[in-house]
Design brief:
It is a single chain. The chain is mainly α. Helix content is 68%, strand content 0%. The N and C termini lie close together (10 Å).
């Protein structure tokens, strides 16, 4: 296994775990001054079906990356990369007028999905351009 593939796969796994932690435990919106009086909500507190679907896709990306570490299947690398890009597109709102409302959970989840996406590209590139031994 090439270094590039190993590095990319580990980035997908670590980014996935950080994404799941940010989704479940960190405040998604910043309440400003009211955050001192009330607990700031996580994404799980705000909606019902959205975080469930994102969690399932995140776990699927982690499972595909772990499977790619254990086997030599390029399909699992591509699948982990596709899941990572889907999470990035679902997490980051492009049309928002301002990003001041979002809390630390949003930013860490977005950074984690970006890390997963870059790791997916590196893993696929490491598989594609690996030298035969």
């Amino acid at each position: 296994m090439s270094r590039l593939r190993l590095t990319g796969t580990v980035m997908v796994i670590v980014g996935g775990v950080v994404f799941l932690v940010a989704l479940a435990f960190l405040p998604y919106f910043s309440a400003g001054f009211l955050g001192r009086l009330f607990r700031e909500p996580t994404l799980w507190d705000l909606t019902t079906r959205g975080p469930v679907f994102l969690t399932v896709v995140g776990v699927a990306a982690i499972v595909a990356a772990v499977g790619a570490l254990l086997t030599d299947e390029p399909v699992l690398l591509i699948l982990a990369s596709v899941f990572s890009f889907y999470l990035l597109g679902s997490t980051f709102p492009v049309g928002s007028a301002t990003y001041r409302l979002y809390g630390v959970g949003f930013w860490i989840a977005t950074a984690a999905t970006f890390t997963m996406s870059v790791g997916g590209i590196l893993a696929v590139a490491g598989w594609r351009f690996a030298r035969p031994s």
